[in-house]
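At your convenience, could you comment on the folded chain following this short note?
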Amino acid sequence: MASIIPVILCGGSGTRLWPRSRAVRPKPFLPLIGGTPLFRETLDRCGDETCFGAPVVVAGAAHVALVEEQLDGRGTLIVEPAAKNTAAAIALAACRLDEDAIMLVCPSDHHIGDPAAFAQAATKAGELAREGWLVAFGIAATAPETGFGYIKQGAPIEDAGYRIERFVEKPDRDTAEAFLADGGYAWNGGIFAFRAGTFMDELSSHRPELADAVRKSVAQGREEDARFYPDAGAFSVIEGESVDYAVMENTRSAAMVPADMRWSDIGNWQALHEARGGDSDGNMAQGDVEMVDCRRVMVDSDGPRVSVIGLEDVIVVVDGNDVMITTAAGAQKVGKLSGAVNQ
């Protein structure tokens, strides 16, 4: 059976993890959990050569050196001329692969605590993709999250997965709680599998101008060693759109595989706190930190000693000369700070 080709998207800026995540070294290239950067974690969990082929990475020019430092010659790099969202990034990779290649699209900045469960889900997704399905990983929902999209599970497809009945955008709290109680909804984690040719056929059907522009950009592009540079002029006419909107919500061949793999998108400091865990009081400290009478507090300092007394549900981050303090509830808004916007 042909290998599954990991297609790793390195386009995120990680502004909600400011001040640790910055334009010069954004979230994918940081060791936020343990000592391994998230991008390298992604490469490593796709490293079993009996299942996965050499990865294809799509990244912007600003991060070529960071990608190649960690890629270490294991795959190829497509240097995206401009950030045009996930549909165009995936299409670039699809146009560089054989049409029968099975693509496993992975964000570069997520954490998965159970790599074996990930590999098992990838194998099932690959089976469905070979049959013409466009497959999303349905991440097991463990809380009524309002910051994620959801997938409603439909009828089973043999023993491999399920049809997708519908996609749901980020719900309000009451709706999210109803989804969790229902049990038939999963989080949409942005991990997909499909044949390269099937994806391009669907993109051509639903977003023909986007598909044509990517094909032209690839046809007029150039190779430099293990890098490929699509033509910037042809690519510039694209109107950016996510793969969810452009393809997955429009196709009649959408499927899902359940994936209970201790996943986190590490989308903000509170999500990172949850992924890192804590002591018996829910506190988590990294660096030179002292806490007294605190509950569910995370302090992450790269230098100065930080002392915290009597706080609950607060996050403190020190990075060089920058100090960021937020409540857990305010963590989603960190990306709006001037330091994050203007980094």
Notes: The longest strand covers residues 185-195. The domain at 4-264 is CATH 3.90.550.10 (Spore Coat Polysaccharide Biosynthesis Protein SpsA; Chain A). Residues 115-130 form the longest helix (16 residues). The radius of gyration is 20 Å.
